[in-house]
Amino acid sequence: MMITAAVLAEICSALPLSGSIYIWAAESAGPKYARFFGFLVAWWSCTAWMTFTASNCQATANYVVSQMAVWEVNFPGGVGNDNIKWRTLIWIISEGFLLLSVAINYLPPRMYSGIFKFGVFIMMLDFFLCLIWLPIGVHNTYGFRSASEVFTSTYNGTGAPAGWNWILCFLFTAGTMTGFDASGHIAEETKNASVTAGKGILTSALATGILGFITAILFLFCTPDLDTFFALDAPQPFVQVYALALGKRASIFMTIIAIIGLVLNTSVSIVAASRLIFAVARDGVLPGSKWIGHVDSKGQPKNAVTVIYIFGAILLCSILPSQVAFTSLVSAGGIPTIAAYGLIPLLRLFMTPNEFKSSHFHLGKLAKPFYVSAVLFNGLIFAVSISPFYFPVTADSFNFACVIFGSITVFAIASFWFTPVDKWLRREQVLQQLNATHEADGEECQSSAHEE
């Protein structure tokens, strides 16, 4: 994913615009196919970011209701997704967290900087508590798992062939290794964006990789034996792990820290998503584009934030009839992003291999090897994400992600055909951007020659 981040940082530096990722795809395709791939990635990205907001709120609600399992609270009808009262409780809490996350985005921009810094502090506090306090608790209670278990043992709970069962482990990490393109979406509001936005993409992927690796190894040593772990019945089993290792009261503190971090994380994702929606609407492709693409007196796309709230609130309602329906919807949330991550280097490799040399993160001789690596790796992650998670496949275990992704793609192609050429991503716009980068490339060459 660091290689993928380097590929995105390269083009981000040359094109630091709101709604970046679909612009990057369009310009990577060149003038002839720019409009088609722009539509495709715009639909993919909007769906992914807006769906992520809803799924994050439901994940936050799971932390809250999991405390009921810790304290053995008797819930009417029982704890489980087959109980409509239980699903209603999760829905109400999820909607509340969505409202809170959106409300933060209505605050003045000068206040939001402090909130973002506080969010980073909370997440690092959570990380270091898990790194220090959790191992102490595990040592004093049920004990660590051995290095042999952590590094050499395998468990097949999927029914898949051994090789594919191992590959499915990417499901655990792939979801956290996406979204680092967010700094590109707010490039137009960033000082020295051609450097800062690209640097944000790289540092985000690097921090996730390093801290994520440490966390994964830590949890493998600190989880109870598999029989105990799989017997945990809370929607978020790590709340019960905290209770087993640290005690019930301490688990409340860890749960609160996690909830605050998730709410602020959701709020930050809304910032990126709203800029993406704003950019697409500004170009006139969405129904009600004039209203959605409006900014307030401080230059903030508040109407786009409202659209994200409405979409997320409606999506969360799918919890009520069926938890499986909601899970299928949100499981498809990361797939369009992964597809875009793989498509952009593919287009760069075959369509525009010699463009954007003015980028502050130009890959030079590493460009083509990086493009190939990014295409292959994201192709693998895409295949894992649409794969069945349990074998043999039944109606209950079918992964609807492929159906949802296919539907999004069909809508994208349909909107491409039926939207007039002069309404969105006109050829002149694409050429204007390419000419701007060509001029920058020429200035870069002249500067280098002068220095020599």
UniProtKB/TrEMBL annotation:
<feature type="transmembrane region" description="Helical">
    <location>
        <begin position="370"/>
        <end position="391"/>
    </location>
</feature>
<dbReference type="Pfam" id="PF13520">
    <property type="entry name" value="AA_permease_2"/>
</dbReference>
<feature type="transmembrane region" description="Helical">
    <location>
        <begin position="114"/>
        <end position="136"/>
    </location>
</feature>
<feature type="transmembrane region" description="Helical">
    <location>
        <begin position="33"/>
        <end position="52"/>
    </location>
</feature>
<dbReference type="InterPro" id="IPR002293">
    <property type="entry name" value="AA/rel_permease1"/>
</dbReference>
<feature type="transmembrane region" description="Helical">
    <location>
        <begin position="6"/>
        <end position="26"/>
    </location>
</feature>
<feature type="transmembrane region" description="Helical">
    <location>
        <begin position="307"/>
        <end position="326"/>
    </location>
</feature>
<keyword id="KW-0812">Transmembrane</keyword>
<feature type="transmembrane region" description="Helical">
    <location>
        <begin position="397"/>
        <end position="418"/>
    </location>
</feature>
<dbReference type="GO" id="GO:0016020">
    <property type="term" value="C:membrane"/>
</dbReference>
<feature type="transmembrane region" description="Helical">
    <location>
        <begin position="332"/>
        <end position="350"/>
    </location>
</feature>
<feature type="transmembrane region" description="Helical">
    <location>
        <begin position="163"/>
        <end position="180"/>
    </location>
</feature>
<keyword id="KW-1133">Transmembrane helix</keyword>
<protein>
    <submittedName>
        <fullName>Amino acid transporter</fullName>
    </submittedName>
</protein>
<feature type="transmembrane region" description="Helical">
    <location>
        <begin position="89"/>
        <end position="107"/>
    </location>
</feature>
<keyword id="KW-0813">Transport</keyword>
<dbReference type="GO" id="GO:0022857">
    <property type="term" value="F:transmembrane transporter activity"/>
</dbReference>
<keyword id="KW-0472">Membrane</keyword>
<feature type="transmembrane region" description="Helical">
    <location>
        <begin position="252"/>
        <end position="273"/>
    </location>
</feature>
<feature type="transmembrane region" description="Helical">
    <location>
        <begin position="201"/>
        <end position="221"/>
    </location>
</feature>
